[in-house]
């Protein structure tokens, strides 16, 4: 995101629109016009009159055709870049499968200092482990700044320490420090539990950050006549 001031924002949006368009099916005249609009300083006619001219009717009509989906994508990109600039820490997708004790140590010791790391130690066939993995999949999408991981007790190299009676286990870290150590964590939940139950359990100890509020969709604005 390189824009500065209103004109920079407009040009940045035009460049984004051109990049996201289907270049194969775009009318050549329209593609060239949008290219010139997104890079006014590179237009063939560099006379002062051309650079300072007002937007033509043709250009105005083109801007009116900007589709809503592309505008939402542009806003999402800007929000993501702003988020990264403010150093809120990295974002993650899904649950990370750790395949060794070394991977387990690395994720604890090398993760960003502001990142909460939740590790599920499980074993196939142990009651509650599969359900907890499914719950973490759901929570990972709702808490993108939290790094959710899972590791098989045998793969972790600590099968003796985490015997079947202590599984599933949830460990919570931040900046390399152990914040939560919940052995046989499902004993704190109902027989049948869901992602909201696991979320509530972790929140009861203050271990999850504030959930991000979803962006308001433009649909609400469009419904206002």
List keywords for this structure.
single chain; 225 residues; alpha/beta; five-stranded mixed sheet; 5 strands; elongated; disordered C terminus; Thioredoxin-like_sf; Phosducin_thioredoxin-like_dom; Phosducin_N_dom_sf; phosphoprotein; vision
Outline the structure in words.
One of its GO terms (biological process) is regulation of G protein-coupled receptor signaling pathway. It is built from nine helices and five strands, in the order αααααβαβαβββαα. The chain is α/β, with parallel strands linked by helices. α1 packs antiparallel against α2 (28-38). The longest helix is centred in the middle third of the chain and has 18 residues, at 68-85. It is elongated, with a radius of gyration of 25 Å. 19% of the residues are buried.
In short, what is this structure?
The protein has 225 residues and is an alpha/beta fold. The protein is 43% helix and 12% strand. One of its GO terms (biological process) is regulation of G protein-coupled receptor signaling pathway.
């Amino acid at each position: 995101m390189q824009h500065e001031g209103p004109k920079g924002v407009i040009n940045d949006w035009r460049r984004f629109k051109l990049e996201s368009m289907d270049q194969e099916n775009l009318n050549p005249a329209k593609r060239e016009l949008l290219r010139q609009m997104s890079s006014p300083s590179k237009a063939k006619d560099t006379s002062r009159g051309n650079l300072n001219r007002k937007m033509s009717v043709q250009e105005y009509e083109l801007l009116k055709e900007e589709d809503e989906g592309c505008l939402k994508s542009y806003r999402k990109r800007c929000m993501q870049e702003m988020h990264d600039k403010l150093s809120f820490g990295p974002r993650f997708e899904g649950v990370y499968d750790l395949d060794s004790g070394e991977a387990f140590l690395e994720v604890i010791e090398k993760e960003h200092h502001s990142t909460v790391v939740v590790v599920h130690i499980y074993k196939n066939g142990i009651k509650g482990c599969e359900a907890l993995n499914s719950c973490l999949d759901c929570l990972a999408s709702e808490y993108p700044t939290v790094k959710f991981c899972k590791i098989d007790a045998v793969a972790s190299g600590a099968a003796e320490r985490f015997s079947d009676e202590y599984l599933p286990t949830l460990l919570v870290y931040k900046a390399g420090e152990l914040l939560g150590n919940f052995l046989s964590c499902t004993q704190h939940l109902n027989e049948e539990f869901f992602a909201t139950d696991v979320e509530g359990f972790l929140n009861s100890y203050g271990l999850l950050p504030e959930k991000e509020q979803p962006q308001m969709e433009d649909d609400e604005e469009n419904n206002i006549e």
